[in-house]
Structure formats: C-alpha cells, structure tokens
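Exercise: predict the fold of this chain.
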Amino acid sequence: MKDKKWYRLIGSFIWEKCFSIVVFVIFAGIFAMIFSLYNLEVEAVIYASALCIALVIVILPVRFAVYYREHGKRQRILKNIELDYNKLPEPFTLSEKDYSAMVKALGDINIAHLTENKAKEQDSIDYYTIWVHQIKTPISVMQMILQGEDTEEHRELAAELFRIEQYVGMVLSYLRLGSSSTDFVFKEYEIDSIIKQAVHKYALSFIRKRIKLVYKPVKVTVVTDEKWLLFIVEQLLSNAVKYTNSGIITIEMTDEKVLKISDTGIGIAPEDLPRIFEKGFTGYNGRSDKKSTGLGLYLCKEAAHKLSVEITAQSEPKKGSVFMLRF
C-alpha cells in the first residue's frame, strides 16, 4: 500500500495475531510434554510438529492476503469517508459489529449536525442579504440628497457614504465566501468589461483625489466568474485609491496573462508584506488608518483561490505597490 510499507503491514498482522501464536506455542508445549511423559518416540513428535508447522506456513500467507485486501478496502473508504461511511466492510465478529454500529451512529449524528448548521448558515446569509438590500435604500436616498448641492461638505459626505456602501457590500461577500454553497457562474468574459465596471465605480474617487489613471484595454478573454473577479478588481482599486494621495494608478496586462494594478502610494512595510492577505491583518499602514478592517485583501485571496487565480503583491514603502492576478 502507498500509505503503509509492506513490512509494517506484516508487523501489524503479526502483532494482531500475537495472542493466537502464543496460544499455539503453549498448546505445542503441552503436547510435547505429554508425549515425553508417555515415552512416545521422538520421530512421532517431530512428525506431528512438522505437520503443524507446514499447516501454519500454508494458512498464514492466505490470512495475510485477506488482511492485506481488507486493509486496502478500508483505506479506499477512508479517502471518501464522508460519502462512503455506510459502505464499511461487512463485520464478522461481535466486536466488529459493535464498532461498525458505533461508526454508523456517529455518521448519522454528524450528518444531522451538518444539515442543521447548513440551515442556520443559510438563514444567516438570507438575513444579511435582506439587510444589505434594505440598507441600500436609505444610502441611495442620502446620495440623491447630497447630489442636490455641490459643496465641499457635500462631497466629503458623499465620499463617506460611498465608503459605507463598500463596507455593506463587503459584509455580504464575507458571508458568501465562507458559505459551503457557492453562487459561482463560470463563463468566458472579457477582462476589459470587468475593469471598466470597477473604474467607473471609483471614477469620482479618482477625480476627488486628482489621481491619474493609466489604463490601456487589455483585450484578453478568460474563463471566470464575473461577479467575483469584479469584486477582486474593485477591492484592489479601492486600496490603490485609498493609499495614494497623489500620483498614478496603472492597470495593465502582461504577455503572460498577468493583470497588474499598481499605484504610487505609501506602499507596504517589508515586514507586513507576507501577511497582508491574512484575515484581520492591517499592518502599519492599516493601523495608521483607523477605517481599515483587514478584510479586503483577505476576501480577495479567498475569492481568487476559488477562481483558481493566483494573487501576489510587491511593494516598497513611499514608492507604491503592485498587485498581480495570474490567470
């Protein structure tokens, strides 16, 4: 077996049969003692012993072959235990029947708990989905009110309201990514259409902070989920805008199908860079910005993993950061 060396399997077999072997040796000793007491010929004792040994030599390999085959069956079931726990090998002894019954009972309890947890999880997602849609209504109303006058105060309020809207969307994304059920729809999409949606969403932020956007259509088509890839691009653009007070944000695609989103912002400290995708990690820059949640890049990493997209980052303090999506 791949998971257990053959000689270890033989050792396990001998150890499990140790009691039978000891009993056999004791019985052989008793018979030898009785034969000697009755002064039987030595040849008879030797002949009887040889027959017993020959029988053992024949039986043990057969029993080991059965042992080996049953071990293989159990290992195959173990690899798919969640699906095949009801397909355990047929028990023969009372002990095996007891253990089999216990395993099946535990499996039934586990399935009941999983079903209950999934129902609670779905209820939670449904609740927050409704909450997100309900909270969007007053947000939209406030945005319309703020558009009535173009003053510095109104622009600042609109920017903060936009940030609230982002956090509301992040709540739903967090719940959906952690859910066992997924809403992924994989099709061929043009990356340009996804990038343009993200750029349009942050257009006012670019204008308000007077950040220059350098973007040349990439003209690349990939098989992905539009909603979640858009979520990743939006989060990366959001961070780029958030940590760039002035300068340039560049969106480009390399020949190796690597989408790069780079900025000339404050950058990431070298000691923080390896941990930026960890859940809740904010780093030095995040701690200086009290509005940072430490969830954005974590959700990007999780979504990218589900899309089979590799996400990496390079950065240098006070010079900017580059985030790369390798399709």
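Check your answer against the key: The longest helix spans residues 94-146.
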